[in-house]
């Protein structure tokens, strides 16, 4: 290890420790913080982000990178990969002036808090000025990053979440999905209409009981509560750090399935974080590769594994016992049909896996138009509703069910949305490869045993961190780069062949 490289490791370790502290403060803001703490929390988060930015843009960093790269032949393969990731993050950071970093931090915190009020009140106009500020600042930062990285503005924003991907490649994949969906969805709906509708268990389902069931299923997947917790927030998420994971969900006492599937989804994220390479904690190479793979892990657990007939065979008697349910509605076959019921719906996080890509394609189209300046925020609610009608044949009756539903834009995360569907495609590839390598996995899921599946994922995804690209990880694990073919095959098998 060279002296320059060792100094970079030390500096990135400190910066990432501060970023972790910011992550816990964000979790607290979303779950426990009283409303009166908003201004103080905004100052705290802005100070942390500016401090990290100052550390990253220290003039000495350029010299350290130059010296470390000059002696690159003395580095191990992991150290070389770490140096590459350090440099990518450094280029992103140095492209944006400190003034803009502080402005974005304050603006996104204000906007997110305004969104938390505007969403339940169904008042887009209330949050629109805050969102306009975030959008303007994001465009400015995106242009600065684009100039530094030699990319288009949207691609520079995308690179923060999915390094190496481009809007051109997403356009190609999403274009094929947008042609496939209108052909496939009517066939699935027609098949389900020809069957007797599944019965929905009757509530109410007390929140405390839902939490009890959620925790039991989290433990079955492999979640360790000595290294994490489950809480409530307006929008489900997984935060914290690998050794202190913070999962949240939201509850509906008339329907327990939404919260439980949300918990399982976030548990997939948590298992990825928990199993990242421990030897590289707080180093860029030890972080998750990108959000496409991150979403693949959540969707693999929720959609591929936990909506399978095998897992529901395990879950059904536990759910029945938890809620003291009885009768045909609680039978595994009926619960499986409920879990795989396809119906166009307004809310993305509650969408089935057949219609889910349409939700993401819509958001991707809208955010690329917003970033390019081809659409104004005044037009966003109407464009959202038109897109839902065109893609899924339904029109949201109010903005709470439309453009106000997701936190991402209000939190400044432009460029994130396409990774959800890229993750769904990767999840299908990875689950098929895992069950091909270990045909016993479905039987194990029937017993609530995730150990074989998680061991395969640790070896082929989790333990690799960011040492390889997304495509390289998928090629090693599945034999192919990311594409939509296995996902489409999965939909055919689960919804049309069964």
TrEMBL record:
What is its cofactor? Zn(2+)
**UniProt: Zn(2+) binding residues:** 265, 269, 295
Does the entry feature the keyword Protease, yes or no?
Answer: yes
Q: Which GO terms describe its biological process?
A: proteolysis
EC id: 3.4.17.19
Q: Catalytic center at which residues?
A: 266 (proton donor/acceptor)
Q: Which residues form a coiled coil?
A: none
Molecular-function annotations in GO:
metallocarboxypeptidase activity; zinc ion binding
Per UniProt, the enzyme's principal EC class comes to: hydrolase
Q: Where is this region: Disordered?
A: 190-211
| Cofactor binding comment, as recorded | Binds 1 zinc ion per subunit.
Q: Which Gene3D superfamilies match?
A: 1.10.1370.30
Segments spanning the bilayer are: none
Substrates-to-products reaction catalysed: Release of a C-terminal amino acid with broad specificity, except for -Pro
Q: Which domain of life is it from?
A: Bacteria
Keywords for the protein's UniProt record, in alphabetical order: Carboxypeptidase, Hydrolase, Metal-binding, Metalloprotease, Protease, Zinc
What family does the entry list?
Belongs to the peptidase M32 family.
- Functional description taken from the UniProt entry: Broad specificity carboxypetidase that releases amino acids sequentially from the C-terminus, including neutral, aromatic, polar and basic residues.
Full protein name: Metal-dependent carboxypeptidase
């Amino acid at each position: 290890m060279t002296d320059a490289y060792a100094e970079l490791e030390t500096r990135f370790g400190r910066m990432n420790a501060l970023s972790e502290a910011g992550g816990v403060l964000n979790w607290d803001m979303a779950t426990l913080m009283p409303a009166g703490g908003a201004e103080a929390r905004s100052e705290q988060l802005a100070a942390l982000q500016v401090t990290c930015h100052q550390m990253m843009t220290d003039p000495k960093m350029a010299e350290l990178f130059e010296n470390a790269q000059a002696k690159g032949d003395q580095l191990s393969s992991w150290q070389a990969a770490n140096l590459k990731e350090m440099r990518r993050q450094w280029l992103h950071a140095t492209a944006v002036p400190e003034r803009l970093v502080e402005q974005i931090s304050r603006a996104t915190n204000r906007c997110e808090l305004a969104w938390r009020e505007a969403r339940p009140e169904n008042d887009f106009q209330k949050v629109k000025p805050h969102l306009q500020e975030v959008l303007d600042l994001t465009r400015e930062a995106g242009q600065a990053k684009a100039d530094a990285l030699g990319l288009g503005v949207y691609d520079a924003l995308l690179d923060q979440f999915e390094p190496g991907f481009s809007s051109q490649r997403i356009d190609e994949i999403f274009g094929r999905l947008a042609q496939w969906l209108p052909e496939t969805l009517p066939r699935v709906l027609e098949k389900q209409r020809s069957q007797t509708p599944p019965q929905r268990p009757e509530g109410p389902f007390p929140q405390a009981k839902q939490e009890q069931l959620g925790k039991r299923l989290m433990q079955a997947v492999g979640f360790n509560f000595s290294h994490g917790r489950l809480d409530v927030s307006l929008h489900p998420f997984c935060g914290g750090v690998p050794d202190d994971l913070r999962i949240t969900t939201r509850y509906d006492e008339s329907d327990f399935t939404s919260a439980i599937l949300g918990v399982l989804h976030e548990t997939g994220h948590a298992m990825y974080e928990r199993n990242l390479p421990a030897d590289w904690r707080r180093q860029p190479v030890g972080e998750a590769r990108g959000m496409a793979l991150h979403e693949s892990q959540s969707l693999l657990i929720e959609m591929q594994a936990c909506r399978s007939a095998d897992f529901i065979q395990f879950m059904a008697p536990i759910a029945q016992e938890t809620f003291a349910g009885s009768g045909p509605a609680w039978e595994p076959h009926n619960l499986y049909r409920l879990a795989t019921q396809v119906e166009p719906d307004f809310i993305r996080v509650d969408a089935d896996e057949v219609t889910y890509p349409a939700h993401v394609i819509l958001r991707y189209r809208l955010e690329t138009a917003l970033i390019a300046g081809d659409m104004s925020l005044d037009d966003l609610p109407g464009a959202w509703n038109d897109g839902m009608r065109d893609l899924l044949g339904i029109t949201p009756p109010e903005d709470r069910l439309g453009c106000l539903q997701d936190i991402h834009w209000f939190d400044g995360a432009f460029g994130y949305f396409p990774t959800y569907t890229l993750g769904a495609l990767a999840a299908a590839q990875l689950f098929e490869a895992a069950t091909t390598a270990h045909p016993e996995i479905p039987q194990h899921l029937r017993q609530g045993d995730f150990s074989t599946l998680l061991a395969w994922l640790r070896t082929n995804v989790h333990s690799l961190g960011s040492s390889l690209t997304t495509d390289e990880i998928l090629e090693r694990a599945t034999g192919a780069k990311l594409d939509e073919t296995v996902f489409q095959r999965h939909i055919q098998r689960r919804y049309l062949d069964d």
